[in-house]
Write a structure and sequence with these properties.
Length: 287
């Protein structure tokens, strides 16, 4: 199967799946989601994605019907049904089904799964970024389905021929529309703290871990737009982008002052992905 959809026990071709109009997600975006990259049936860092998914659900008082272990089993079973070697595995839980009413409905949550072709980002390339004022609400640590500000910011980036839009609250950089953003300055890796102003990315946490293992100092603190533009390197990370460097922000040159350190971090991130999944971009073979 080329692309697969799943909804509350029913599964089939993604384009043929349907959901109830009374699902809370249709009216309120009332749910949470997560996603992971998968190579040859191995879902990368699945345990961490599952933990984040359940934490988001807890913060929104949603109780997933499946346990962590049962959900992992189901995701692996569904992934095995797709023909592609490289896919994105996406899942979400809405609060449930009921006639439109702001108060919580009775009954159980609804589970969606979507699996489609996708691959990890080539870290050898450089990308362009733009900056956008962060006007989102103050629950960014919950991976909620309410993503309209992110959608608009992503559209602005597309119009500017940029890879991502970097959010900022006043002068403080937070994250991107669908990624985390970090800087390297004087040999130190700097990233916004994992508070309610950003989503605590799985790749972000891995970058912190990798830098620690390489002996690179890590500072989890707020940093400014000036620091972003003055950084030796600017990195963007997400589920499928483990730390791609940026060379332009708002049309101005950025980064490029510590290429060896950036490459060292990128190589370590990719080495872990290779080790876990057997991924080999050039040969497309199991290592």
């Amino acid at each position: 199967m080329d692309a697969l959809g799943y909804y509350n026990g029913n599964w089939g071709s993604l384009d043929e799946m349907t959901v109830s109009m009374n699902d809370r997600v249709c009216f309120f975006g009332d749910g949470v989601y997560d996603a992971a990259i998968c190579h040859k049936k191995t879902i990368y860092r699945l345990d961490r994605h599952i933990d984040r998914f359940f934490n988001s659900a807890k913060l929104l008082e949603i109780t997933p019907e499946l346990s962590k272990e049962k959900l992992k089993t189901l995701l692996n079973e569904m992934t095995a049904k797709v023909d592609h070697d490289d896919v994105l595995v996406y899942w979400q839980a809405s609060r449930g089904t009921g006639r439109r009413n702001h108060a919580f409905p009775e009954g159980t949550s609804n589970l969606y799964i979507m699996i489609k072709a996708a691959s990890v980002t080539n870290l050898d390339k450089k990308v362009k970024l733009i900056t956008v004022e962060d006007t989102r609400f103050l629950h960014c640590n919950i991976k909620t389905l309410n993503l309209i500000p992110n959608v608009i910011a992503s559209q602005r980036a597309k119009e500017a021929d940029a890879y991502e839009a970097v959010f900022h609250r006043g002068d403080i950089v937070t994250e991107c529309a669908h990624s985390n953003v970090h800087i390297l300055k004087d040999g130190t890796f700097i990233t916004h703290p994992a508070d309610n102003h950003i989503l605590p990315g799985i790749a972000r946490g891995h970058l912190v871990q990798v830098c620690g293992g390489l002996g690179i100092p890590v500072e989890e603190r707020e940093f400014t737009l000036k620091e972003l533009f003055d950084a030796d390197e600017v990195l963007v990370s997400s589920t499928s982008t483990f730390g791609v460097g940026a060379d332009h922000i708002d049309g101005k040159p950025a980064g490029g002052r510590a290429p060896e350190l950036l490459k060292k971090i990128q190589d370590e991130m990719m080495a872990d992905f290779h080790s876990v999944t057997g991924y080999d971009r050039e040969g497309d073979r199991t290592l």
